[in-house]
Write a structure and sequence with these properties.
Layout: H1 2-32, H2 37-60, H3 72-101, H4 109-117, H5 124-152
């Protein structure tokens, strides 16, 4: 059981890295083609979540043949809902928390000095804005794994297995 969970976590992480790359490449292509950045972001989101669904179905959360069969379109819709919650809603709520409420720029002066020593001129607030999405990853990725594992890709026991 532990090995299966560890394998799922590692696979989920790899798919996540690939998914981030797919999203960024699609976004950059759309912007280069002249699309508005918001349209590019929406297109990148739609394609990258589909990419995540395909790989998670094949590699991360493989269907157990001894359990009830999943309905593919329900899993796909749940996957979109999970990513919309963590990637769109929660991500923005956390940005507001880190930047506006907790004011993490109070903690960045030593790091700001270090970054500036490399010729990258940022003030404390700008660096906090750049760091905040990295903090979000620490919350969103584990939460997204849990939502996908126990909700989107969950399989129920078959009538034969209910004994």
């Amino acid at each position: 059981m532990k090995n299966k969970l560890l394998k799922q976590i590692v696979s989920f992480g790899i798919v996540g890295v690939l998914n981030t790359l797919v999203s960024q490449v699609i976004y950059m292509i759309c912007v280069a083609l002249g699309l508005h950045y918001l349209a590019a972001s929406i297109i990148a989101f739609i394609i990258s979540v589909l990419h995540a669904y395909l790989w998670q179905t094949k590699v991360v959360f493989k269907e157990d043949e001894n359990m009830e069969k999943r309905v593919w379109w329900q899993v796909l819709l749940k996957t979109y809902a999970a990513y919309a919650f963590t990637g769109l809603f929660l991500n923005n709520v956390l940005l507001i928390l880190w930047i506006d409420l907790l004011k993490i720029d109070r903690f960045t002066p030593p790091l700001t000095e270090l970054v500036n020593s490399f010729g990258i001129n940022l003030d404390n607030h700008e660096l906090a804005v750049d760091i905040a999405p990295l903090l979000n990853i620490c919350v969103n990725v584990p939460l997204n794994f849990i939502i996908n594992k126990f909700w989107a890709y969950r399989q129920k026991k078959t009538a034969d297995n209910n004994e």
